[in-house]
Design goal:
Elements (H helix, E strand, L loop, with lengths): L2 E4 L2 E4 L6 E3 L4 E2 H19 L5 E4 L9 E3 L12 E5 L5 E5 L4 H9 L2 E6 L12 E8 L5 H17 L5 E4 L5 E6 L5 H18 L4 E2 L11 E4 L9 E2 L15 E2 L1 H6 L13 H8 L18
Parallel strand pairs: 13-14
Antiparallel strand pairs: 1-2, 3-4, 5-6, 5-9, 7-8, 9-15, 10-12, 10-14, 11-12, 11-16
Helix pairs in contact: 1-2
């Protein structure tokens, strides 16, 4: 088993030849390599946030499961923090703050990385807002793009700037940096905007989760702003049939999208995109850009 040293931490990498994505033949070694390569863009979006993992040790076609607590054998140097659950129980969770921890997690086949919209040091403060645009039956990411543009303009009217990424599946995620907001306030604002767009564009948008209401519409999921929920992190790989990535995209790409294939990216595509364009979600991390929710 290969042993590597990263930032002074020794890691034993195991079963790198194991195929995690049978359709493409993508191995665990390729997953680890992707995460190590994309780390400079990914880590700033993870630091200080408690992680939830979707693990698929035997591949995406086998059993997968969400893990919140640190797995058995977690090295002592991995940063953890305590999160209070809705039951009032305290739960320890991993933070991925550095390259060594990221590679350690990838070696455990932690394919998907999910984070809340707050940091462990300030769980009562929502430092960003998120909308998850999910296409219903007979709709695609192209339709999500049209709704994303409506949301962007609506938020701008309140002085809030937003940036986007693909979900890595069928939809889009819109983010906006916030200041002076609680998760409850962020969720209330997001819900109000979703309901407003539903009222103004009833043929395009639905704000309610009920499945039978979502046919031929875009569901604006505002609920991921809850302090108890998480969203797929920027640059995370998804446990789909192929190793797609939740990828930051430009507003020009959204405006010009006329084919779902134009906003579908895999681990083979994303490092070159970042090399060419940088982190398109970097403004999300600039506190001077943080908006204030209207009272």
């Amino acid at each position: 088993m290969p042993i590597t040293e990263i930032e002074g931490r020794k890691l034993t990498l195991t079963h790198l030849e194991r195929i995690l994505y049978p359709r493409t033949g993508t191995t665990k070694g390729e997953l680890v390599h992707y995460y190590a390569t994309i780390a400079p863009a990914l880590l700033p979006h993870l630091r200080g946030r408690p992680l939830s993992f979707l693990r698929a040790p035997s591949g995406v076609d086998a059993t997968s499961f969400f893990a919140k607590r640190p797995p058995a054998g977690t090295p002592s140097w991995v940063t953890t923090s305590v999160t209070e659950r809705s039951s009032g129980e305290e739960m320890e969770q991993v933070q991925i703050n550095d390259l060594a921890t990221l590679v350690w997690a990838a070696n455990l086949a932690c394919i998907e990385l999910h984070v809340p919209q707050w940091k462990a040091a300030a769980p009562g403060t929502a430092d960003r807002l998120v909308f998850d645009l999910d296409p219903g039956e007979d709709r695609t990411v192209v339709d999500c793009c049209a709704v994303a543009l409506l949301l962007r303009e609506r938020m701008r009217a309140d002085g809030i700037e937003s940036w986007a990424k693909t979900s890595g599946s069928k939809g889009l995620h819109l983010y906006a940096p916030l200041t002076g907001a609680s998760p409850e306030q962020a969720a209330a604002y997001a819900k109000a905007l979703a309901k407003e767009l539903e009222a103004d564009h009833p043929d395009q948008v639905v704000s309610r989760m009920t499945k039978n209401l979502r046919t031929e519409k875009i569901f604006i999921d505002w609920s991921q702003n809850s302090a108890k929920k998480t969203t797929a992190a920027p640059y995370t790989v998804r446990a789909r049939a192929t190793p797609t990535v939740s990828t930051p995209v430009s507003w020009d790409e959204i405006e010009e999208c006329d084919d779902p294939a134009r906003l579908s990216f895999t681990i083979a595509d994303v490092p070159d995109r970042v090399a060419d364009h940088g982190d398109l979600l970097a403004p999300l991390l600039e506190r001077k850009r943080a908006g204030k929710l209207p009272s």
